[in-house]
Design goal:
Blueprint lengths: L4 H13 L4 H14 L2 H13 L12 H4 L9 H11 L2 H17 L16 E3 L2 H4 L1 H6 L3 H15 E2 L4 E2 L2 E3 L4 E2 L7 H14 L8 H19 L22 H16 L8 H12 L11 E2 L7 E2 L2 H18 L6
Antiparallel strand pairs: 1-4, 2-3, 4-5, 6-7
Helix pairs in contact: 1-14, 2-3, 2-14, 3-5, 5-6, 10-11, 10-12, 11-12, 12-13, 12-14
């Protein structure tokens, strides 16, 4: 497998060349943070606050972005990092305004769980990635756990061992036939990996419960690997399409889970290595990661900013696991 630095730089170059929605900007910032590209993250955060709404949401590029509640929160950690590194009050103000929106103004359910959209009372599994890590990073530990668990309670399907993707809180029904999307379940796993190091030691039980939830999703997803291939609808390949973000998100989750001590090495590491190999083989000479859920429609296999970001995150986790600088 080719895991050279040159290939990773090509993947990064493509990511930076791509147009990005607010959630894609946040995902890219997460990848560059793990790569140690702090200066680039600061520049991205500066652009993020150039595109903010009066209510505090940042990175707004389109009408689709304006409809989202939790997606802009994915940019929150980069704002705090930029503020910490530069002392620039613009980053502090943007971070505080976004946090205020999240805690006090964003539309939410009667139990206080934030909706994913401004104009429809829907829970999306995506929010598990976008929101709780931002809250944990901001020191809102109990709220972070509450939000993650609220989405879990609404979306987890015990029979499938997977998360449904969309729940309508008004009608009390799952949307799109209760689909279990690969990327949606991957979001929930990576969210736990990002949250656990941020939560205080005193939250031992909460951390154990989060880790167990991530492990259950990993197990559920692995049941639907088909010779290294995942479909957008994990358990309904008929009528679906190949969408390999699940592979690299799973690999990331396994590497980090073993490193963090809540996942055993035996029986899991071989999956992560195989999935990572499958993704490395899908990077072309330009640096595009192929066969992920393709932008802009997300209804066919292709290329997308988060395909690039999750590849980089996967490789960072692998490098940390192996302890070699040249693996990526």
């Amino acid at each position: 497998m080719d895991m050279t630095k040159e290939r990773t730089e090509a993947v990064l170059g493509v990511l930076l060349a791509m147009q990005r929605h607010c959630w894609e900007q946040g995902e890219a910032e997460h990848a560059l943070t793990e790569l140690g590209e702090t200066e680039t993250v600061i520049r991205m955060a500066r652009e993020t606050i150039n595109r903010r709404l009066p209510d505090g949401r940042v990175g707004i590029m389109s009408e689709a972005d304006e409809r989202t509640v939790t997606d802009p929160c994915s940019c929150g950690q980069a704002l705090r990092l930029a503020w910490e590194q530069t002392g620039d009050p613009r980053f502090q103000a943007a971070h505080e305004k976004l946090l205020h929106w999240t805690l006090h103004e964003a539309p939410r359910s009667e139990k206080g769980i934030l909706y994913h959209l401004t104009d429809s009372p829907e829970f999306w599994a995506d929010s598990m990635y976008m929101l709780p890590p931002f809250l944990a990073d901001a020191g809102e530990y109990e709220e972070a756990v509450k939000q993650y668990n609220g989405y879990w309670d609404a979306l987890f399907d015990p029979a499938a061992g997977l998360l449904h993707t969309f729940w309508h809180d008004g009608t009390g029904t799952f949307l799109r036939d209760g689909i279990h999307r690969g990327i949606a379940n991957g979001y929930a796993v990576i969210a736990v990996c990002r949250m656990l190091p941020l939560l205080p030691e005193a939250m031992t039980e909460e951390k154990k419960e989060l880790a167990e939830k991530a492990r259950r999703i990993i197990d559920g997803m692995l049941k639907h690997e088909r010779d290294g291939v995942f479909y957008d609808a994990l358990d309904k390949p008929e009528g679906s399409f190949v969408a390999m973000n699940a592979a690299q998100m799973l690999a990331y989750g396994i590497y980090r889970g073993i490193q963090q001590g809540w996942l055993v090495r035996d029986g899991y590491l071989e999956h992560a290595d195989r999935l990572r190999g499958a993704m490395v083989s899908r990077v072309d000479t330009y640096g595009f990661v192929n066969d992920v859920c393709g932008a802009p429609t997300f209804r066919v296999p292709g290329n997308a900013p988060n395909g690039q970001s999750f590849y980089l995150l996967m490789q960072c986790a692998a490098q940390d696991f192996v302890g070699k600088e040249d693996i990526i």
